[in-house]
Amino acid sequence: MRFSLFRTRVPPPIYAAVAGVLIYGLHRFLPQATVVGGLGWMNGIAAISMGILGVALVAWAARVFGHVHTTIDPRDPYRASQLVTVGPYAFTRNPMYLGLLLLLTGWAIWLGNLVGLLVPPLFVVVVTFLQILPEERALATLFGGPYGDYRHRVHRWFGRSRYGGATVCARDE
């Protein structure tokens, strides 16, 4: 039986693209919420740094997935062949989504629209409920105890718990 309850329909980069367009739309159609001058060049440095960090995090996470030969396609978490807990996965259970969040936050800062800064937290809520929770259910089904241990060691978005260690666990076929 395919775990249809664990399938997601829309890849998170699509949610991120929609959020990016929304941030731009808010900037364009609510110019009164745009901070002109603000911190000037510091905003630019912060925005570019967040964008670069976000892209680098997504690329690093994708490379780790490729290294262990597991799927990067988030639409069917049941296809995961490995529980990856190394590289960026030692610090966040969702480095690709965290990278997208950093990219969106950098975009909002770059545009300087205060209302646009509300969109990245909305992205977190949408991705958590529509993508991460189904993925977590699938991973718990596929990997059982090792995934439970990993969940206790590493936070969903960022940070390690009091437990350490990192492993790659193959799914029992």
From TrEMBL:
It comes from Halothiobacillus diazotrophicus. The keyword Nucleotidyltransferase does not apply. Keywords: Membrane, Transmembrane, Transmembrane helix. InterPro entries: Phopholipid_MeTrfase. This is Isoprenylcysteine carboxyl methyltransferase. It is found in: Endomembrane system. It comes from the Bacteria. The chain crosses the membrane at residues 12-30, 42-62. GO terms for molecular function: transferase activity. GO terms for cellular component: endomembrane system. It is a multi-pass membrane protein. Pfam families: PEMT.
